[in-house]
Design a protein that fits this description.
alpha+beta, Rieske Iron-sulfur Protein, five-stranded antiparallel β-sheet
Amino acid sequence: MSVAYKAVLWNRQKFIYDAILLSLVVLYIVLFINVTQWFDSNIDIRGVRIRAFGSAAFILLHVILSIGPLTRLSPKFYPLLYNRRHMGVTMFFLALQHTRLGLQWYHDFGNLEPLVSLFLSNTNYLTFIRFPFQVLGFVPLVILFLMAATSHDFWLANLTAPVWKGLHMSVYLAYALLTGHVLLGALQTNTHPVLTLAVGVGLVWIVGVHLAAGIREFGQDNQDLVTGNEEFVDAGSIAEIPEKRAKIVTLGGERVAIFKYDGKISAVSNVCQHQNGPLGEGKIVDGCITCPWHGYQYLPEKGASPPPFTEKIPTFDIKLEGDRILVKTIPNLPGTSVSPAVIAMEEQR
């Protein structure tokens, strides 16, 4: 979190992450070009470079789309999620270079401007096999540009979270179009079955990992503790919750994070106001609930970020009966202070 907007909030972790990311990208492109030339010394280097940058961007897109569902399956992937925006911007510049090289090679020597030629040189828009596959690559480039340009929190705050989230969800449209771009273009000019298999495996992986994460989330939401008109419900025992961690339960369709810290219990909405991150999968750091996605923080007894920040989340009344935790089914307004339930000394042992 920061009080003022900065272009990039650099820290040691981000420097290391970006250095590794850029090193892997450069290594892949160098290996792609050299291995391709080793197999065919007569191949045109310009075409090889086009495919090198394009395939690097496409592979990176698969990684980016995998990170979200993987974090739902295991918290070990949170470091990737924390730095995913840098990966997305890197992917855009790889795709931009792929497009620039492609326009130069295929459309720079005719009577039309390259961008005009892109849309008019092949007008078989009503066919399948001969469809102008390059157009299917250009439209995703526009989507990736909008996502990269609005990746900073400045745009998240000023576009509002729903609009920003909707814009960035268009990455799935970009992926669908790029899959068509590859299938109709690169696969038609390269009959080697390995490339076809690789694209198919990538598509199956993306669909499969999203389905796995969705099934897990659906199962959790179905374990709703509210079955009638009860005011409080039993959410489990104190011993279930590790110190400075939380247990996530579902009350009336809403996920609630119940935190244990310093001999106290507090309950808040599980949804971070930044990007809907799962607060209950984070921990208490310096007395604040800290979102595992991007580090946004909230005071557990107030549901509000510490000053000067203004983010607020709903809180829940809570009480203890022995070692059992009872949570009120109706949430309080965001930022409402609620006295935490104090754990008896015998229950803390």
